Amino acid sequence: MATTEILSWGVGLLLALMTLLFIFRIVLTWYPQADLTQLPFLLVVWPTEPLLVPVRKLVPPIGGVDIAPVIWVGIVTLLRELLVGQQGLLRMLG
Description:
It is a single chain. The chain has 4 helices and no strands. It is mainly α. Helix 1 packs across helix 2 and helix 1 (3-28) runs antiparallel to helix 3 (68-84).
């Protein structure tokens, strides 16, 4: 397996995992009573919160709904398509 294939696979897996975590964060906004400091919620909050804080400062909640995770799903999906999509940069290198 070529180095670019391994890199492409790893980046694709990481970005897919981040997309899934942000989707879980969207679902967690529907349950405000969930204690985000306890397992298993902490496994979703820990890797995503540092990315959500700056976006929340730029885009405040709309109608009481935190849209920062939705924005990140779009960003990560775009990055995944640009890097490892059918005509992504990492695929073109390999």
